[in-house]
Amino acid sequence: MKESRRAASPSASALVTMAALVLGAASLGSAAATRIASVARRVVTPAVRTADLRILRIDRAAQTITLERNDDTVLPGRYGLFTNGAGYLKLGAVLAFDEESATRKLLSHVDAATRVGEYASFSGWYFDSPEQLHLPVSRPLIPLPVGDAPAWLFDAGRGDDWVIGVHGRGGTRAEILRAVPTLHQAGLTTLVMSYRDDGEAPPSPAGLYGLGSTEWQDVDAAIEFARERGARRVILMGWSMGGAIALQSALRSAHRDLIAGLILDSPVIDWQIVLDDQAAQLRIPRAIVRTAMAMLASRAVSRAAGLGQGIPFDELDMVARAEELAVPILLLHSDDDGFVPSDASHALAAARPDLVTMETFTVARHTKLWNYDEHRWTAAIRDWLEAQGLGR
Questions:
Q1: Of 115, 156, 171, 296, whose CB is crowded by the most CB atoms within 10 A?
Q2: Rounded CA gap, 296 and 292, in Å?
Q3: Which residues form the signal peptide (predicted)?
Q4: Are 238 and 164 in contact (CB under 8 A)?
Q5: Which domains does the chain show, CATH number per domain?
Q6: Alpha carbon distance 197, 74 (integer Å)
Q7: Mean pLDDT throughout 238-259?
Q8: According to the model, what pLDDT value does residue 30 have?
């Protein structure tokens, strides 16, 4: 079992004290306070996709693409690429690589007339529209607390067992599409939802993430939507921050009697671990991140700084709240995630072996487990569903 790197969470009183220090520093015009506020705002501001990957060459005769090398571009499996000019391209196997570049097979045709911009964004989505699945799909609007939000509904022909898919931070519904064929084959009707501040659903009043502390209300509305259409059991499937949202829904939803289980891919189980790890990668001192968390945790300070209603980090720590969980959970996480460390997933599995089944990957990167090993990912979900008596 991988040992958790989680440090003890600051107490509520300590967080308030730290927040007061932030205000004091801000009143002095401290550069540190400015940096703290910047980090805090980055945490809750909806992410925007950036074209940060350079395309070095496209061979239109061979239908290959050469990208600058990074941890993603040399991964085995199938992926996607958001481009300027050619739209969304599907990428196949790595054909060659060296220290500076990686050449992959193009699974989307790029013709001679298409001009592609120099920079692109690498993606694990693979499918970017529901039509690519060749399954019947409808497009209902879900009445969320923030307003009507678009969804995709894949009816498997049975009204009893549903899956509600919840995408991650900076993503959209398309992130969930990889899972739909597996769920459909298992006889599960799948509702792929949008939620506040994701760019598809209406925004929240502040236009800022709650990291799961507010978004669960939208999942609650989606469960009610499913219940009204005959669902008797609901599985919540969350990716990354969507995992944090699903876990909060399992504890808070007015319809949690319908929740029969959770499937979580690369989930955020404890935000402190995630933010500490990101700070280390960005070489931001841990004290800056911890104080930014304190700033966000204080409702008064957060509101005064224009950062929303505050983030209750203690309530979002699901390792600390493991005893409150009551439904079976399948955790799919890579020890080489690179963005959301798997430590907290391992800790949750150790805390609740009666409920949690953990499928640990290596090599695969964040939310790209399906892409790396589709067969294993699919088998893990299929076997878990059968063990829980869900679906066909």
A1: 296
A2: 6
A3: 1-25
A4: no
A5: 12-123+273-314 (2.40.10.170), 130-270+317-388 (3.40.50.1820)
A6: 32
A7: 98
A8: 65
